Amino acid sequence: APPEKKDIPARDVSPRAPAAVPAKPSEKPAPQMRPENAPQARPAAPPQRPEQPRRSGTVVIVIDDAGNNLAELESFLRFPGPLTIAVLPGLPHSAEAARRVRAAGKEVFLHQPMEALGGQNPGPGAINADMSKQEVRDILARNLAEIGPVAGMNNHQGSKITSDQRAMETVLEFCREQGFPYLDSRTTADTVVPVVARRLNVKIGERNTFIDNDSEKTAMSKAINGGLDRAFKQGSDVMIGHAWSPELASLLTELYPSLIEQGYTLASASAYIMGVKN
Question: pLDDT by residue (tens digit) across 96-130?
Fold first, then answer.
């Protein structure tokens, strides 16, 4: 590039003034003056927390098998969001567990024991396939009197009963009379609950995720995340865990703020099934 052109001043032809006498240097350097309103350096802003990606979907969490141990129940009752606790009948602490759940503002379901195909013992107050309709109704009424009032019912074990149309007709008729919904825990792929419920016009829900088939914390986190993905893609997910899982309550409480921040809605089981907002 060519050198930068400079403006050359015109030649001065006026008489020259006498040369100025150079000033004596001052003995002290001039003080440096700092402007009064000089801007101050601002501290660096703290790093911003990255926003959680927004998601939506309804999440229902049901905790089964309450009634054996009151101490293990307490941590679930401190969970900050909606939670449904399904209480087994006929256990040492069944009635007191149900009372404490209601007192904590959580929802109680009757966790109705039912006969399983594998022959496992479902526990006291169970429905067996060889029972008459009246025997089934009597057992349900007795269990409800112990646990109630309840907001709904779901099955404990029960792969044999939930695949038996005659037995499930009796169970769902009882639910309809009581005015509460039924949640199918889906312990068998051969369940007839949806078919019978449509015929009887009974409101039901269905379990999508078992949280604690493996009760190790990492495995439970993976199961919950799978349920959240399903809720985001399909609109909802019903998750079932168990009161005896030692780390489940703390894990749910730990994850709760993130679920809400991401945009998920937590609902009780009955509100979700009946289509009512909590």
Answer: 999 999 999 999 999 999 999 998 999 999 999 99
Instruction: List, for residues 140-157, the tens digit of each pLDDT value.
Output: 999 999 999 999 999 999
Amino acid at 161: I
Using omega within 30 degrees of 0 as the cis cutoff, is the peptide bond preceding 43 cis?
Answer: no
* β-strands 57-66, 264-267 pairing: parallel
Domains observed in the chain: 64-207+264-274 (3.20.20.370)
User: Residue 153: beta bridge partners?
Assistant: 110, 182
Report the C-alpha gap between 64 and 84 in whole angstroms: 9
Quote the pLDDT of residue 3. Answer: 39
DSSP-assigned states of every residue in 19-42: PPPPPPPPSSPPPPPPPTTPPPPP
